[in-house]
Amino acid sequence: MTSSPVTIKRLPELNDPAAQRSFLREIKEFVESSRRPRLIFDLSSVSQINPGSIDLLLECVDHAERSDGEVFVTGASPETEVLLELTQANSVLNTLPSALEAADGSQPQAA
Amino acid sequence: MEMGALVVAAGGDLNGATPGSSLWAPAWPVLGQTVLERWIRMVQGLGVGLVSVVDRAEQPSKRMHTMVEWAREGVERILLIVLGSYAEIDLGDLVRFHYQGQHRVTRVFDQQGPLGISLLDRDSVLADSEPVANEPYRPSSRYDFLGYVIRLSSTVSYRQLVEDALQGRCAIRPSGIQAREAVWIDPTASLDPTVQIEAPCYVGPGVKVRAGVTIRGCSSIERDCEIDLGTTLDHASILPNTYVAPGLYVRESVVDGTRLENLARGVALDLGAAGLLARISNTQPNPARPLNLSAAIDLPLSETEEGREDA
């Protein structure tokens, strides 16, 4: 078991800059108020992630690492998995099938 | 005339892709040459001067008409190849088998079944066109082939053929010059000195490979592609006129223009809008650049970026 604080999020719409700013602000506040936070992004409703969303995830990784935290993505479709591998984002993101496993502190899947 | 060869190719063999969710198209080159071109070369190696390629979409009666015309003009034997595989058949041995056995029709089989290759006598072609009531039924004979065959029906089988060729498991030899053991680089390719290559691999004519690129795992880059800074190709094939953006890790995939098929996950994506892949216009061919074989990857980069689309 882990005592690290956990939050589960969905990515905001890319065409809504205000939503993105608000999303990043929330992430920043969460990681700054936590020790070793676990950020979990549920991508189960995303059929194919786009590069803009990958950039957003990488920003979250940057924030989380400053607090010694981790970022997980869950429920990624095969198309999204291909894009995460192609852009090498999977080298800094932990991938798990479901949010439950990420929250439980399971070991990430091999990329 | 002794022999003619009729090659029946899918439309994609002749000029483009076949429809469907997979990217696979019979027109894809395999280390510099399409399978159709390799078949034609094999037929010509047999000394057959009369070779015709027809589209599979055409009515079968048209094919028959061509063969009947040839038979009437005196062509003694017709080699019919319905393209669907790459097979390293000794066509000379097939002709001897057919001739010595006095067969009228010989069909080629491997362990999985027929390969779509038949040798037909003139009489059998004419008899089929003008059936004779009292003509006794004579079944076709079977020529069993045990050599290298791959049925080309998917992107997976295409990659298998590329890997088999690069690893010397079949007789295909890449075009271009062997720069070192199992590394073939066309003399007109341009590779930055920092490019890392792990054999075996193939780099075709007019290809530009930018600084920091890694090519490994039986990867192939067909003609007039550009692989941008720092990208890694690992068990990947890049088809002609394709631009691959910087910093990507292309693994177990075939890329054709803006489209990528990942074989490990069985999905095909169009990444043109994402700016990760692009189709390079082939209206302005890359200028030929001599290759210094003593330092095969020690060539200056061309600064021209002309012709790129969708990037």
What can you see in these coordinates?
The complex is a heterodimer of chains A (111) and B (311). The two termini of chain A are 24 Å apart. Chain A has four helices and four strands; from the N terminus they run βαβαβαβα. With 111 residues, chain A is of the alpha/beta class. The model of chain A has no long low-confidence stretch (mean pLDDT 84). Chain A has helices spanning 17-32, 51-66, 78-86, 99-104, and strands at residues 6-9, 38-42, 70-74, 94-96. Chain B is of the alpha/beta class and 311 residues long. Chain B has two domains: 3-151, Spore Coat Polysaccharide Biosynthesis Protein SpsA, Chain A (Alpha-Beta Complex); 174-295, UDP N-Acetylglucosamine Acyltransferase, domain 1 (3 Solenoid), CATH 2.160.10. In chain B, 19% of the residues lie in helices and 32% in strands. In chain B, helix 3 crosses helix 5. Chain B is elongated. The interface between A and B is medium-sized, with 12 and 16 residues.
Question: What labels would you give this structure?
Answer:
heterodimer; A: 111 residues; alpha/beta; Transcription Regulator spoIIAA; four-stranded parallel β-sheet; 4 helices; 4 strands; 15% strand; B: 311 residues; Spore Coat Polysaccharide Biosynthesis Protein SpsA, Chain A; UDP N-Acetylglucosamine Acyltransferase, domain 1; 2 domains; ten-stranded mixed β-sheet; six-stranded mixed β-sheet; 25 strands; elongated
What's the CATH topology name of the largest domain in chain B?
Answer: Spore Coat Polysaccharide Biosynthesis Protein SpsA, Chain A
The low-confidence parts of chain A are: none
Mean pLDDT of chain A: 84
CATH architecture classification name of the largest domain in chain B: Alpha-Beta Complex
Largest interface chains and counts: A-B, 12 and 16 residues
Question: Poorly predicted ranges of chain B (pLDDT <50, ≥5 residues)?
Answer: 285-307
Gross morphology of chain A is: globular
Query: What structural class do helix, strand and pairing data of chain A support?
Result: alpha/beta
CATH architecture of chain A: 2-Layer Sandwich
Number of helices of chain B: 6
Roughly what is the average pLDDT of chain B, rounded to an integer?
A: 86
Question: Please, what is the oligomeric state?
Answer: heterodimer
Please give the radius of gyration of chain A in angstroms.
13 Å
The biggest beta sheet of chain B, please? 10 strands, mixed
Topology, number of strands of chain B: 25
**How far do the termini of chain A sit from each other?**
24 Å
